[in-house]
Amino acid sequence: MNIEIDLDDPKPIFAQLIEQIKQAVANDKIAPNDPLPSIRQLANDLEVNSKTISKAYKLLERDAVIQSKGYRGTFVHPDAKANCQIDLKEWVTSQFEELITRLKEAGVTDSEMRLTFNDVLTNN
């Protein structure tokens, strides 16, 4: 698997990494249970901050595209091919759009929504 980061791309580096790993899975360039480079190794290879790689790996793990096996390393999840087709951001956006439409129909102002959202987010 060859990962290339484009520093001129407006897309954040972690998003480029996620996209390329998902494409590699979808195109069978990496298979379930294949090992991935460590965070430190990939950060060194790509010459980016290890926190950027860590963020991408955490999001890929959340989406069950990769899995961490502790000290043994990080591997492609057995169900990665199916899971890499899921776009969580798209789903979250549609959920918010539906909720905001209902709230506006009920007469709730943008300010009230923002304040309430911040309160709920802070308290959960």
UniProtKB/TrEMBL annotation:
SMART domains linked: HTH_GNTR
Nucleotide-binding is among the record's keywords: no
Pfam families: GntR
Coiled-coil boundaries: none
Superkingdom field: Bacteria
Record flagged with keyword Cell membrane: no
Domain HTH gntR-type: 11-79
Alphabetized Gene3D superfamilies for the sequence: Winged helix-like DNA-binding domain superfamily/Winged helix DNA-binding domain (1.10.10.10)
Name recorded for this polypeptide: GntR family transcriptional regulator
Organism: Paraglaciecola algarum
